[in-house]
């Protein structure tokens, strides 16, 4: 079966994942979260582990790849990596490669959820598969990544608290920069924003909701000028996005027309590329950290457990931390040096 990637399929989940808090404190992990744990040296000796990557051209995807490779090396396993480069057809070829390499199990971070069944069919059979951040139904042995609905809910509630405190819950519009290509993950994350906000300020006024398939920088830059043109004289516009890039694009587009202060935003990921913006932009309420540089400390040890026949929870959720200007240097100890190096 040939899988073709359309324009909407090529998405950057710069992960990645989940939503933001207004509060300064660190958000506690919920009961479904699992801690990071480095691979036990030698635990993967004699094993071949594969990975279908998101895209090394994206910082988040590269960090996840590097973390998996590092932990596989620590475990003593052979590591076979293949980059999907955000393309379903390339991901299918990656699955075929992993089959040829006789991997004992693999990690799947390809972004086109609708292609998952065909990709699974083309890949190694009867081996454990851990999907990363995007469900790969029907081939998930386990799923690692965000607790999408809960994370979105927390972020939406944070926005609700902010608007209740500052504007008596009054807002002019709700712009949702989504990623339709990732399917249920998109629905969970973006729906979580809406539900969380509603828990504080009541149900959203659907006449004020505007959704766009624009969950990355270039697409947000493309849709936001028209979105703002269609919202003249509005100064309390909430913008939520599936990742940091969407919000960066939204603010850049708004700045170009002198309306950056009209936006109040929340994002998912807290990638290093967004640290300066989170620190300096008072209208970027925050972002939930995904820690892609530690993903290997879940993916590799748990995949080795599965290969060895051990029972593993289906949901291997990241312990997310809410990041904002007030706590970013506490959450990321390297952030202070980063700010100096970037003059921000």
Please compute the radius of gyration using only Cα atoms: 20 Å
User: How would you describe the oligomerization state of the chains in this entry?
Assistant: single chain
Shape: elongated
Report the β-strand fraction as a percent range: 15-25%
First-residue to last-residue Cα separation: 49 Å
The biggest beta sheet reads: 6 strands, parallel
Structural classification = alpha/beta
Number of H- or I-type helical stretches = 11
| Poorly predicted sequence stretches spanning 5 or more consecutive residues | 1-31
Could you report the average pLDDT, rounded to the nearest whole number? 88
One letter per element, helices H and strands E, the order comes to EHEHEHEEHEHEHEHEHEHEEHH
The strands making up the biggest β-sheet line up spatially as: 2-1-3-4-5-11
The number of E-state strands comes to 12
Give the % helix.
25-40%
Structure description:
This protein is α/β, with parallel strands linked by helices and 344 residues long. The chain is 38% helix and 17% strand. The chain is built from 11 helices and 12 strands. The strands form 2 sheets. The chain has a 6-stranded parallel beta sheet, sandwiched between helices. It has a 6-stranded mixed beta sheet with strand order 7-6-8-9-10-12, with helices on both faces. The longest helix has 20 residues, at 148-167. The relative contact order is 0.19. Mean pLDDT is 88; it is low at 1-31.
